[in-house]
């Protein structure tokens, strides 16, 4: 797959989306939809724009690399939704589209006279994705929040870090935003399916914290049933051993995953100590959990005596799942990443060559495309108003003078 290539009509061709959200969570849902063929019109304030344009590493065009990557494949127009003429234009656009994406604080659209129910009086099939810190209901519904807060409230940060250390950021500082965008894209497609059958749209309501809480495997049922509060365990997990990170002779870190007794027996063979998997030692998960420190120490000693290449060869030969702990530099140099096409290169007219992460998931017959990076603020305003609403150049100029666009 290459930039601009499309072997067949994309899965979401014909779906039109208005993205009035800011920053990352709901807009990322729009990015996913756009990657797979939806027409996504990004609507920004005429003067302020989306703060995502200033978040991250700046470039010579004035927008950051984060914007160029995450606003890709979207048309960009400006519209002041608080201006009477801007709101009127928005309602006219709503009549023609399938989806609206927003992530303002609950009640904001209602104050502007643009509540989803009122928009569905214009377009009964309209699907509205609403992402907020805590969701549209509940005692915290009106409070602000970002991904960092969501990681804490949703239980993820509590689990991230060493047992005797403070909670840490679990990977990307924007993980909850990206996950909310993923859940949001799924919710939009489910709601569109319902709209196809029934002719009725609906809201998709996501709290940022819910996006991470849903991924905490058995922590909820384990607490409800047994009162277990899972604590920070570093790279370990409570249910299997050894299952973590180890350092090799040259200082590289690797992940080794032994999720069953059979796999541990293979690891013991690879370590040259098959007796470790004997019934008197660590044959069962229960035995290994009871001797977690000793088992992890044996693996650590083994790993420390090998280069990463040697350790990998031994694990591969034995059928033990393992992998390097890659930096972004390692990812760029990895031949598997290259073979899978996980990094896409394109020439952007504003900044030159860019390398962006490829869309996910991979569809074999109708793959996503990368058509262009994030565009300049208002780059498509005139085209959208002219082509979708039939406005003449003079009318567009008057709206611009009046501050509506």
TrEMBL record:
GO terms for molecular function: transferase activity. It comes from the Bacteria. Keywords: Transferase. This is CoA transferase. The keyword Cell inner membrane does not apply. Pfam families: CoA_transf_3 (PF02515). SUPFAM superfamilies: CoA-transferase family III (CaiB/BaiF). The keyword Protein transport does not apply.
């Amino acid at each position: 797959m290459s930039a601009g290539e499309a072997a067949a009509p994309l899965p979401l061709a014909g779906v039109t989306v208005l993205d009035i959200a800011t920053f990352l969570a709901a807009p990322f849902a729009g990015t996913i939809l756009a990657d797979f063929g939806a027409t996504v019109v990004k609507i920004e304030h005429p003067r302020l724009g989306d703060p995502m344009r200033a978040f991250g590493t700046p470039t010579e065009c004035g927008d950051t690399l984060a914007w160029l990557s995450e606003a890709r494949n979207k048309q960009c127009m400006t519209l002041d939704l608080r201006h009477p003429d801007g709101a009127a234009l928005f309602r006219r656009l709503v009549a023609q589209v399938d989806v609206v994406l927003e992530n303002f604080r609950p009640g904001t659209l209602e104050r502007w006279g643009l509540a989803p129910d009122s928009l569905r009086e214009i377009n009964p099939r309209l699907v509205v994705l609403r992402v907020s810190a805590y969701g549209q209901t509940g005692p915290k519904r009106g409070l602000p929040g970002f991904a960092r807060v969501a990681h804490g409230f949703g239980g993820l940060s509590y689990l991230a870090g060493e047992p005797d250390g403070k909670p840490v950021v679990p990977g990307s500082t924007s993980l909850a935003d990206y996950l909310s965008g993923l859940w949001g894209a799924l919710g939009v497609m489910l709601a569109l399916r319902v709209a196809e059958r029934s002719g009725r749209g609906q809201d998709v309501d996501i709290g940022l914290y819910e996006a991470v809480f849903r991924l905490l495997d058995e922590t909820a049922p384990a607490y409800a049933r047994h009162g277990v509060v899972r604590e920070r365990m570093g790279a370990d997990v409570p249910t299997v051993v050894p299952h973590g990170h180890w350092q090799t002779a040259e200082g590289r870190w690797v992940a080794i995953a032994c999720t069953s007794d059979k796999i541990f027996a293979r690891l013991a063979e690879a370590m040259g100590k098959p007796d470790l998997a004997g019934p008197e030692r660590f044959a069962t998960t229960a035995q290994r959990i009871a001797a977690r420190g000793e088992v992890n120490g044996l693996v650590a000693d083994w790993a420390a005596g090998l280069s990463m290449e040697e350790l990998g060869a031994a694990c591969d030969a034995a059928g033990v799942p393992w992998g390097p702990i890659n930096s972004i530099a390692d990812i760029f140099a990895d031949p598997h990443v290259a073979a899978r096409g996980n990094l896409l290169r394109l020439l952007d007219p504003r900044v030159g060559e860019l390398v962006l992460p490829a869309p996910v998931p991979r569809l074999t017959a109708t793959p996503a495309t990368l058509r262009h990076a994030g565009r300049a603020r208002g780059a498509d305003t005139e085209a959208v108003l002219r082509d979708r609403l039939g406005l003449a150049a003079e009318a567009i100029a008057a709206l611009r003078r009046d501050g509506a666009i």
